[in-house]
Amino acid sequence: MTDQLLWFATRGAGVVSLLLASAVVVLGLLTTARWQRPGWPRFLTAELHRTVALVSVAFTALHVVTAILDPYAQLGILAALVPLASSYRPVAVAWGVLSVDLLLAVVLTSLLRDRIGYRTWKAVHWLAYAGWPLAVLHSITAGSDATAPWMLLVDAVAIGSVVAALAFRLTMPASPRAILADVSAGPAQAGRGSR
């Protein structure tokens, strides 16, 4: 019974973390596009992005821990940290490991943002965009229910929402006033609303 609970916890936390990671990417793209609704301050989109990112990290940690404890996959701590070290679907697990490694780099630099500076933080923060497709590849290839209709729907929602936000971001012209405000405010101020 415990083994089955671990399997459900691993799969459930993985699905939730994929959806949350997709929401984080969408909110990040909307924030950089300076998207806001009337009566919705821009900082609120950035704060929502940050909060959803923290919840996503928690579900990703739950996914990894339960996968390590699950006796079926026999993942182990080394395989959870080192790409291709897993005996269970090594390439599929490696996509997830690489995604988590990039996520850890983003989390650590975000915690050290005041010490490492805005430019360094921003450069590392761009890694989050590389981590998301790796998480999608992991989702599509690693799970025993990866081809189940409900899982295909989850993947489609995740991919579709990010593609839509990216299309919006690429077609949204930057406001000259916002660009000038960011440039004149300097890196410390510019980074506050542009994540």
Q: What does this entry look like structurally?
A:
This protein has 195 residues and is mainly α. The protein has one domain. 80% of the residues lie in helices and 0% in strands. It contains nine helices and no strands. The longest helix has 31 residues, at 2-32. The termini are far apart.
The percent range for strand residues is: under 5%
> How much helicity do the residues have?
over 70%
- Envelope shape: globular
Structurally, the number of domains stands at 1
Helix and strand run: HHHHHHHHH
CA-to-CA gap between the ends? 43 Å
The DSSP helix count reads: 9
Structural class comes to mainly alpha
How would you sum up the major sheet? Answer: none
Low-confidence stretches: 176-186, 188-195
| Number of β-strand runs | 0
Radius of gyration: 18 Å
- Mean pLDDT over all positions: 83
What are the key terms here?
about 200 residues, mainly alpha, about 80% helix, disordered C terminus
Quick structural gist:
The chain is mainly alpha-helical and 195 residues long.
Compile the SSE list and pairings.
Blueprint: H1 2-32, H2 42-69, H3 76-81, H4 90-111, H5 113-116, H6 118-125, H7 127-142, H8 149-171, H9 176-193
Helix pairs in contact: 1-2, 1-7, 1-8, 4-6, 4-7
